[in-house]
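Collaboration report, partner site 2.

Our partner group contributed sequences for two proteins of shared interest, and the home lab folded both. The records are reproduced in the order in which they were received, starting with the first partner submission.
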Amino acid sequence: MMLQSLPVSARYAAIVIDADTGRVIHETEAAQRWYPASLTKVMTLYMTFQALESGHIGLNDKLSVSRHASMQPSSKLGLRYGQNISVENAIMAVTTRSANDAAVVLAETLGGSEANFASLMTQQARRLGMSSSSFQNASGLPDEGQISSARDLAILSSALIRDFPQYYPYFSATEFRYKGRVLPNTNRILKSYPDADGLKTGFTCGSGYNLIASAKRNGHRLIGVLLGAHSSAERFEQMGNLLDIGFERSSAPGINVTQLRDDSYSPPPFQLSSNRCAGSAMQMGADTGSSQHEAIRIKPREKHYAAAVRHAAGWSVMLGSAGRKIDADVNLRQARNVLGPMAKAGQPQIVRHKIKGGQIWRTQWTGLQPADATMFCKRLRAKNRECTVLPGRS
């Protein structure tokens, strides 16, 4: 008998923080261990910037390409054994092209060997408070010991922008000119989100499509991390949604990112166990059975929806959306538990909305007095739960 696998809900990890204060604005499974893929290179560059500041290396120094570095798989710059490359060009190759060969050149220069440099990366991670992270290489190529989390990567990105603002513009470069070639930056968030000015993409079969992004609006900087998207387009679209959430709730209270504790020591999920990833999956001990996944829908941009809720009687609050009704039911039940006696006011609802490619279920509370709506969200946000107040008609 042939069994057809049923779709499962999308699993991903995400976080948005205030870059200046470290306050968590939004998070989903942010402490869950995950394969970082090429987001690893943010740590490689953090340590490169440290070496520049200490005077250990200079931007114009010429670095020799080892046989090991030249043999790195794509993505790569195509460096040849015995060739020289400047520190600055190696940095640009990493930030714009995610070049594995350039990352290894930097690692071997600073650590003597890539393995030793990886050990130094893990030590640096501990000093920064990245308690879930361990590194085995400088590039993020698949290794079951190469582990991080959305929380840890947000801590790292915040530290890089804080400690080395003079080097952060390397992440904003839209192209890299090298040996007569003009190589565009592969990080499309720089073009798809108006306020974004960095940071880094990553992909392996184990990790899925990852992205760290930072955006600045009216002097206010946010950092977003998304791990586990199922396509490149999905990560950029949903990162835009994450940053929108962040700017909309920029004044909401929240805990510091360093206070997000590990709630699970389970191994990272293997995101893309499809045919093209089966070999990699087996190497890392993952289930290679074909799986179908719902798309990540963090916050679909349906402008008409907020307007429709506002025209309901009284004030309303939006409590989030889910790809399955069962998840919306859980969200509503948890909100009730947090609200306690306050939940007697207004009318809770779970509403189905059709969107391109499927449907989502939104949890909302309507018919509230203004003071009730405000107190609802104050109570829910204090527990780090999603809540948006929507005024009624005046």
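Second partner submission, folded after the first:
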Amino acid sequence: MMHNERCALTNVLVTGGAGFIGSNFVRYLLQVEPQVQIVNLDALTYAGSPANLKDLPSPERHTFVHGDVCDRSLVDGLLRQHQIDTIVHFAAETHVDRSIVYPEQFLKTNVVGTFTLLEAARQYWLVEKQKPLEAVRFHHISTDEVFGALHPGEPAWTETTPYAPNSPYSASKAASDHYVRSYVHTYGLPCSITNCSNNYGPAQFPEKLIPLMISNALEGKPLPIYGDGQQIRDWLYVEDHCAAIHLVIAKGRVGETYNVGGGVQPTNLEVVEHLCAALDEVVPESPHAPHKQLMKFVADRPGHDRRYAIDITKINTELGWRPRHSLGQGLQQTVAWYVSHQDWIQTIRQQPDYQKWLQRNYTKR
């Protein structure tokens, strides 16, 4: 099958671009695409923050719009006003623990939001033919959690692994992936999908494992480890993920899915041990060093998948992508970022929703 080589990206709509991966992608794209104009649509729910968009390179090529991906007339207006040729869809609720508590919110944002964008793109690109088809792309960011869980010794997931979502979060992402795929096959909408493993890096909301551990460690608080800590995840440094997305949008085949992973599969326990070592190195003067002494086992969460692992052969062979950061390097850069951005952590933590959530999810175990 031919590669669909695209014209250069010109006018890009990034949804969820004030969130963790989205804001890193906006930053990355402004650096590598000197002509690109970015429209960033974000609802600024708890996980998105204007603080993530401070000090952007070439900020004059970035327009922020506060709004919801489920708002069809807003999306229609943005596509027309900015003559959008590329949609990069990050906007999603992404935290498994939250999906257990608030499943309906995940259905709305992840499924209805994706559907709304697909319909708007179909109307603008296919029905009104406002752009040549070879110049447009709808790229959907998904997760490896749609594949369910792996037992020890089972082979890693490939793009053809059947979906078997286990949480309301992964079920909502699986549904949105199916919608994207159906729009390629039913309407000929030029779409691509990436399913990524666990991301980490600068500006990740501090409910997720790595930033939560870093901020707790800096304050000498316990580092909670679920169950026996032997859950295995594939960890991907966010900048490597951004490079993969950019490559798929530019050179990936229409209608194809590409798995993006970090190529390392440590246990959660090993990740926290790595982190403690990085903290010892970056903040040797900390009164809490060695930080390993803060680790504490807590009750496991319901339905906790044991192992995820993702096979990146396809994106490597077809597009030549592989992660550039080792886990050690990525964690060290991440720790250094958090240590030098204490103000960012404080801004996020002052949100009333954040305090309530930590209390509900971690304190009551």
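Feedback sent to the partner group on the second submission included the following. The mean pLDDT is 91. The chain has two domains: 11-197+235-263+307-323, 205-232+266-305+327-354.
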